[in-house]
Design brief:
Blueprint (H helix, E strand, L loop, with lengths): L1 H9 L12 E3 L1 H7 L2 E6 L9 H10 L3 H6 L1 E4 L3 H13 L3 E5 L5 H9 L3 E4 L4 H15 L2 E2 L6 H17 L6 E5 L4 H13 L4 E7 L4 H8 L22 H10 L2 E5 L1 H15 L9 H13 L5 E6 L9 H11 L3 E9 L4 H9 L4 E6 L6 E9 L7 H10 L4 E3 L4 H5 L15 E9 L4 H9 L4 E8 L5 E9 L8 H8 L3 E3 L4 H6 L2
Parallel strand pairs: 2-10, 3-4, 3-6, 4-5, 7-8, 7-10, 8-9
Antiparallel strand pairs: 1-2, 11-13, 11-14, 12-13, 15-17, 15-18, 16-17
Helix pairs in contact: 1-8, 1-9, 3-5, 3-8, 5-6, 8-9, 9-11, 12-13, 12-14, 18-19
Pathway: Amino-acid biosynthesis; L-isoleucine biosynthesis; 2-oxobutanoate from L-threonine: step 1/1
Enzyme class: lyase
Pfam family, one: Thr_dehydrat_C
Length: 504
């Protein structure tokens, strides 16, 4: 199997439109991690991602009759732009079905490259179903984003370039994983020619379809998929891609949203380029690998796979990057409500920089403050800060890993509601589209009073909401069914310490 893929890779016609991207050293990462870190800059492709390789190679394999019929695909992002440009170069009509929630930068990216955009549905499965309907109705040829041997071969040219650009010792290549086209192509080429090099997949911890498939020994469908790294938000690994990955991918690492944001900042510090969340997975994976294995003196390559990120999303990235790097702690601290307490707390913090401070009067006896404090993972970790404050008599609750605190509470600290009773608190994610909020409120109905509401837009495809509902004790058993009927993912946060300390 590998030999067949290598032949396809070596004969792929990608360079009519794609470029050979540089393999760039990341000096600051090298110094911090005590390992050599190279970045394969696929963000420098004409469509700002590697996807142009597979899309163009697949189109070159079509017969003249198939090209005349036109092509169609479903994609929320980089494959759409790659196919649009590939089709334009080859003179093929391309129709791209995209969910209505697709970021505008990617919709315009497709249109500007000559693709016909059809916005349909709120999610990728709905867009996919409609694109397949067009195949039946219009006779279009469907071009799969990742699960096709010629697409896999096109992406595999990335590995061909890496081995040519870095002929010396190389310990591992870290590859972002969505549907698996990129890692399958890289694994096929690398394991055939340099089997000693590890091929390591990196996925978000809420979109780990390859990791779950490897553990089960078969393809699985994730019940939910996180949307922050939208370029790899795939519920099931591809059939062709898994046939390669199950035997030739050495391992899969998962990383958190905060770790992805920290990696985006790392890449910026070394290259002054802005990477999309999916594109930073390779660097996030290297950092986690080095941290957990304690390795040094090795040589790694991270695939910087794309740079198609909404500008509005950068505020969220910047907010979370320091947390992901272990350079900020988010804590709740209880202090006595008396003159001099703030001063005593600041003295206890010492020379550490306070990055955020939220306070509102609570009672005559004590105050709860929401604080961000700068830390350092090596010489002044979060644990040392918390231990120091505790020793000095300040009760501390660590909220650094608390999603409710980081997404909402930090923007809402305003004191407890004295006359609110029977309050339940839920956190929701819903598709960022016109009417989503009305749909939420309409389906919730007027049965229970909404006692608290906070919404944040992160420039992403999903909206984040926290809501309080006043529900009498004898009706609480009705709440799960009512929330399920809304159709949005939700989490019960009624016992979350961030809520109980600052708002409950």
């Amino acid at each position: 199997m590998l030999e067949d893929y290598v032949k396809k890779i070596l004969t792929s016609r990608v360079y009519d439109v794609a470029v050979e991207t540089p393999l760039q050293i990341a000096p600051q990462l090298c110094e911090r991690l005590d390992n050599k870190v190279w970045l394969k800059r696929e963000d420098l492709q004409p469509v700002f991602s590697f996807k142009i390789r597979g899309a163009y190679n697949k189109l070159t394999q079509l017969s003249s009759e198939e090209r005349a019929r036109g092509v169609v695909t479903a994609s929320a992002g980089n494959h759409a732009q790659g196919l649009a440009l590939a089709a334009k170069v080859l003179g093929v009509k391309a129709t791209i079905v995209m969910p209505k929630t697709t970021p505008e930068i990617k919709v315009e990216g497709v249109r500007s490259r000559g693709g016909i955009v059809v916005l349909h549905g709120d999610s990728f499965p709905e867009a996919l179903a409609y694109s397949l309907k067009l195949v039946d109705e219009q006779g279009y040829v469907y071009i799969h984003p990742y699960d096709d041997p010629h697409t896999i071969a096109g992406q595999g040219t990335v590995a061909m370039e890496i081995l040519r650009q870095h002929p010396g010792p190389l310990d591992a290549i870290f590859v972002p994983v969505g549907g698996g086209g990129l890692i399958a192509g890289i694994a096929a080429y690398v394991k055939y020619l340099r089997p000693e090099i590890k091929v390591i997949g990196v996925e978000p911890d809420d979109s780990n379809c390859l990791q779950e498939a490897m553990a089960a020994g078969e393809r699985v469908v994730l019940p939910t998929v996180g949307l922050f790294a939208d370029g790899v938000a795939v519920a099931q690994i591809g059939h062709y891609t898994f046939e390669i990955c199950k035997d030739y991918v050495d391992e899969v690492i998962t990383v958190s949203t905060d770790e992805i944001c920290a990696a985006i900042k790392d890449i910026y510090d070394d290259t002054r380029s802005i990477t999309e969340p999916a594109g930073a997975l390779g660097v996030a994976g290297i950092k986690k690998y080095v941290e957990t294995r304690g390795v040094s003196g090795q040589t790694f390559v991270a695939i910087d796979s794309g740079a198609n990120v909404n500008f509005d999303r950068l505020r969220h990235v910047a907010e979370r990057a320091e947390l992901g790097e272990g350079r900020e702690a988010i804590i709740a601290v209880t202090i006595p409500e008396r003159p001099g307490s703030f001063k005593a707390f600041c003295e206890a913090v010492g020379k550490r920089q306070i990055t955020e401070f939220n306070y509102r009067y609570h009672s005559g006896r004590e105050a709860h403050i929401f604080v961000g404090v700068q830390t350092h993972p090596d010489n002044d970790p979060r644990s040392a800060l918390i231990a120091s404050l505790t020793r000095q008599g300040f009760p501390v609750v660590d909220l650094t890993e608390n999603e409710l605190a980081k997404l909402h509470i930090r923007h809402m600290v305003g004191g407890h509601a004295a006359h609110v009773s029977n309050e339940l608190v839920f956190r929701f994610e819903f598709p960022e589209r016109p009417g989503a909020l009305f749909n939420f409120l309409n389906k919730l109905g007027g049965r229970w009073n909404i006692s608290m509401f906070h919404y944040r837009n992160h420039g992403a495809a999903d909206g984040r909401v926290v809501a309080g509902l006043q529900v009498p004790a004898d009706e609480r058993h009705l709440v799960p069914a009512a929330l399920e009927a809304i159709g949005y993912p939700y989490w019960d946060e009624s016992e979350n310490p961030a809520y109980t300390l600052f708002l409950g």
